[in-house]
Structure to design on (530 residues):
């Protein structure tokens, strides 16, 4: 394990009986009573969430509502309130985001947080977790269960142990001992089939699985066998992946199939430029920069050409990219004199950041400022409200008027109206 | 004071293993880097090798009381949370190693540190 891995602090946070807890915030009379959120018995509804009081009667989520009612005659059933859970979830995760920017939300009521490096702000992970739970309870009146350890896997299992309203902190270095007595089924990814297969070999506990020879597990389970053995020891190097990193792993792109195939270079250039601007706008909106751009041209006979271009520094600047994309498109089109069916552009090699011009790039910096104004105008008046012709002139389409060339002062005024 | 307790629920899965047990901390501990708090429940594994840096539970020899200590690099014990440390001439008998700590709050209960 690297020094970086050894010093990680990863939290798994889980909102207790989330839907029910939100309903209880809305109606405190529900507190202390067996409550479920879900569809009606008549409509063959199922339980979406059950309070801990209801769970004591054997009621659990995904159970048919009729069965739940039979198990617990005093059960209070509530219809799900649309939208409210997403809002409550956002409020919680916004709050958790104030502890660390590295928050990976895995569901409406569950997330991983990487607190590594935040010790000087909030103390050790245990302190931060305590503080977090207190803040969520006081400000949002919701209960949080937290698992604390050096990695996602152990924290996830630990939070399961702390439910409800608890916190389980696994001491660094004790992960294999923490896991050893546990049944193999607690390990995420081990389902009934794998459990049965392991049981055939008398492997019931994670400690036994961790002590089993890797070659044997590989023989039985393939490559997954060795990974399963590592995980049984509480080893996991999967990073906590916040949304902007997830986005960075992917790409942003658009493509357009023409209603009629065309070989009109102006139409192709115009379409490509519009899509490129759209992509760059999305990059700016998400706080991402792209390193590589690919353009795609598909001909009427479905033959497809793609070309890549890379900038020395990542960028979200329309004009920097267009300076590459325009000539690239022309080179592709020169290769064949065939009608084009589709053009597309895609940005990859995304990373989090904001474009910053060089010391002697005043023009570029001014252009980038204008792009921010254009973004605001498009957000306000729609995607087609502004079309760039070149770096200094824009055409502004407002209220159906077209081809009204405006200056930047008017554009800024329009955007801030 | 450390009091042995039975755990139910998921945490009780530990109890199915004869090498693992739980101790609850009764009484307010003194503040130190272990961040102990009254009510903390420690999951302890016994019968394992002790390593430097481990938090261990040891028999004090006074009736059947136990204390927490951290194992230092030279394998001496450092008392934590206001627990007594072993006298120099007494070799401490380790009961087990702390693998984790559970902190529970009932809904509505103060969560003040």
């Amino acid at each position: 394990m690297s020094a970086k891995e050894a010093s990680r602090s990863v939290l798994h946070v889980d909102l207790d009986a989330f839907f029910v807890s939100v309903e209880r915030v809305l109606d405190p009379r529900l507190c202390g009573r067996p409550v479920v959120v879900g569809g009606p018995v008549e409509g063959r509804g199922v339980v979406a969430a059950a309070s801990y009081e209801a769970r004591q009667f054997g009621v659990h989520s995904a159970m048919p509502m009729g069965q739940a009612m039979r198990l617990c005659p005093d059960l209070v059933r509530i219809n799900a309130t649309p939208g409210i859970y997403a809002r409550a979830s956002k409020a919680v995760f916004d709050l958790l985001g104030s502890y660390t920017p590295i928050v990976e939300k895995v569901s409406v009521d569950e997330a991983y947080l990487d607190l590594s490096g935040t010790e000087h702000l909030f103390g050790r992970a245990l302190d931060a977790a305590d503080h977090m739970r207190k803040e969520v309870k006081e400000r949002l009146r919701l209960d949080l269960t937290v698992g604390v350890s050096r990695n996602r896997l152990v924290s996830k299992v630990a939070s399961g142990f702390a439910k409800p309203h608890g916190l389980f902190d696994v001491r660094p270095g004790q992960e294999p001992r923490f896991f050893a007595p546990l049944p193999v089924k607690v390990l995420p990814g081990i389902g009934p089939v794998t459990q049965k297969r392991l049981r055939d070999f008398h492997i019931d506990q994670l400690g036994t699985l961790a002590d089993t020879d890797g070659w044997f597990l590989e023989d039985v389970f393939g490559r997954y066998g060795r990974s399963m053995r590592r995980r049984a020891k509480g080893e996991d190097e999967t990073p906590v992946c916040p949304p902007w990193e997830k986005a960075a792993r992917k790409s942003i792109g658009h493509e357009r199939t023409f209603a009629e195939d065309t070989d009109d270079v102006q139409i192709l250039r115009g379409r490509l430029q519009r899509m490129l601007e759209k992509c760059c706008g999305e990059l700016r909106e998400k706080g991402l920069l792209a390193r590589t751009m690919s353009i795609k041209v598909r001909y009427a006979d479905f033959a497809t050409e793609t070309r890549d271009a890379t900038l020395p520094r990542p960028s979200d600047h329309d004009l920097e990219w267009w300076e590459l994309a325009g000539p690239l498109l022309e080179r592709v089109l020169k290769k064949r004199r065939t009608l084009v069916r589709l053009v597309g552009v895609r940005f990859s090699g995304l990373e989090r950041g904001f474009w910053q011009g060089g010391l002697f790039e005043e023009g570029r910096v001014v252009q980038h400022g204008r792009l921010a104004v254009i973004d605001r105008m498009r957000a306000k008046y729609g995607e087609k409200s502004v079309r760039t012709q070149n770096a200094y002139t824009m055409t502004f389409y407002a209220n159906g008027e077209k081809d009204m060339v405006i200056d930047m002062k008017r554009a800024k005024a329009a955007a801030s109206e | 004071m450390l009091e042995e307790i039975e755990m139910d629920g998921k945490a009780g899965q530990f109890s199915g293993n004869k090498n693992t047990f739980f101790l609850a901390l009764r009484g307010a501990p003194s503040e130190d880097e272990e961040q102990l708090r009254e009510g903390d429940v420690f999951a302890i594994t016994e019968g394992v090798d002790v390593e430097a840096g481990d938090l261990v539970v040891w028999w004090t020899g006074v009736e059947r009381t136990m204390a927490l200590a951290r194992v230092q690099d030279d394998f001496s014990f450092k008392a934590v949370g206001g627990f007594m440390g072993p006298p120099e001439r007494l070799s401490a008998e380790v009961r087990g190693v702390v693998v984790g700590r559970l902190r529970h709050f009932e809904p509505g209960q103060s969560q003040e540190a």
Notes: Chain B touches chain A through 31 residues (CB under 8 Å). The domain at 2-102 of chain B is CATH 2.10.109.10 (Umud Fragment, subunit A).
